[in-house]
């Protein structure tokens, strides 16, 4: 296990808020962004938590992320909207987009908002989960940096394009599916590389488009753009359903990028005022459906409990002890980390301290 | 290759219409059902075409499918509705539900209809594709007979629960994703069994929940309900993402069964008037989003063309010659079968002839 520092969610979030404000981000936007990041750490999705703070700091300093963007609603109907994020941080605009989708769902039964000209928005599940307290089902998708090869292709043309769906239950925890449409995200290759473990065939391809066990080669190829990349869910070819993962990734691009006007398949769109390309140019899609627009909430939630209990209580495969519902592991980690603190990777903790020093924000987290 | 009989779509469809009418199905419903079935044959999804006519005949005769059901709208809001299918055929109610979703999308920007108390609805993609001519994006999902094991589970608790999404393009063909959320459908096991080929590990498990190459064993276990079943997309365990396929299947159950009040995870709901359980008790979910509720249709369609061209023209993996867009293979098969006829399996042709004789419908298809 890597060395860790135990930190508490609240001061960690406060620290991030101050960092973003020092970089010129408005207070509300800083709070939202910090909350999304620390929520990832609480839920055990460490790859999407404060470990990414440096990337946001760099993104703002490089001008790729505008700290106070001109965010505007481009199109709006009773149940839909398109927002241009003005190349700002992905989190604040996504929070507002999901709030808008929920408000529309509460008034009309369902609501959908696409966002273009945005940046990395953190964990997809965060926004889907915003619907839960309103007795709505939430959905969130995002396009992402191009790392995934299409079925039978040699080069990456798609992002890891996650899909998240959250649905409320009664006494059980909500169902929270939050999945990249690739077999694994890039971070998983980095973990295997550090541990010097060969990759399972079906995770990634080399520069010829051939499945490989050599994680270092794939990671190096990303840097030199030599070809190859992550494989869609289902792996290479069609035998194990790789074309299905590829289809899911394309669907996410259609909803997040093509419906909004964001980048897709290595296009770069749009540009900054001075003609500089914005390599992120990310698009998102948010949706909310009000449960009682279909069925009484109590009946639905009772069924959600029953479904979960049936699944958990069904016999286990040989050698297995437990069947999980999506989101359950993350809720359990969050309970533990709220009670006992977040075990922050020591290198990440050092980097936060360095960011604090650079920006004059006190780092007193341990 | 199995022996085949070349038949034409039009007389084949007429034959099916007459069969359904002889069984007491109203003319419009018979026409819709026949059209959905023959569309599957045209698109090359032979497993979901007229090869299933016998099952519908039997379903109606056994009282599991009501030929003239009392179909009613249970709940309706501007953009949502819940329809009770009255245990009728799945196709006619699904056609009407999707038409309702499209009408709502045209008026308000998006529309969603769930259906409960229904039966097998044929190919999921058919309904999603209905949105295309209205410049809408269509979605269709259905719950299905329980054949799929949850991750770490021993017994089947989920259906193959397909998801279909269709989006229009300009000069290119529409994007039509239509995928079971299991690695493969049951039919694929039957094909491998007939060819005496071992199953790839990751398709199915034996009665202990252990991945197996023995297709006969899995198929026998289905009949005797001995346990095991199909694996979700991503295979067994979590290493290759099996929990993601499991999550997608659960999502489909939440939208199709829990939001509508249909059966899920081996529940059986509701019963017929005389208390007989309806083992199908299938639920569906249909959605439509109007493209121009987000972005001008021309811009969207031009991007859809560009996305497809970029994907098709990107370098191929070693040994591969072509990258496909979802739906492309099926459109090409349909072009061929419209021009040259449908190569109907000889056994299926014989069975159609037998059905015709039983019901007094002339079978003159060759």
Task: Characterise the protein shown here.
Chain A has 3 domains: 1-69 and 340-366, Orthogonal Bundle (Hypothetical Oxidoreductase Yiak, Chain: A, domain 1), CATH 1.10.1530.10; 77-181 and 233-329, Ribosomal Protein S8, Chain: A, domain 1 (2-Layer Sandwich), CATH 3.30.1370.60; 184-230, Hypothetical oxidoreductase yiak, domain 3 (Wheat Germ Agglutinin (Isolectin 2), domain 1, 2-Layer Sandwich), CATH 3.30.60.50. The first copy, chain A, contains 11 helices and 11 strands. The model of chain A has no long low-confidence stretch (mean pLDDT 95). The first copy, chain A, is globular, with a radius of gyration of 21 Å. The first copy, chain A, has a 7-stranded mixed beta sheet. By secondary structure, chain A is an alpha+beta fold. At the A-B interface, strand 3, strand 4, strand 7, helix 8 and helix 9 of A face strand 3, strand 4, strand 7, helix 8 and helix 9 of B.
The tally of helices of chain A reads: 11
CATH architecture descriptor text of the largest domain in chain A: 2-Layer Sandwich
Structural class of chain A: alpha+beta
Q: How would you describe the shape of chain A?
A: globular
**CATH topology value of the largest domain in chain A:** Ribosomal Protein S8, Chain: A, domain 1
Biggest sheet details of chain A: 7 strands, mixed
Number of domains of chain A: 3
Oligomeric state: homodimer
Mean of residue pLDDT of chain A?
95
Biggest chain pair contact, residues each? A-B, 89 and 90 residues
* Span of the ends, CA to CA of chain A: 19 Å
Strand order of the largest sheet of chain A: 2-3-4-10-5-6-7
Query: What is the CATH H-level superfamily of the largest domain in chain A?
Result: Malate/L-lactate/L-sulpholactate dehydrogenase, NADPH binding domain
Q: Which CATH class of the largest domain in chain A?
A: Alpha Beta
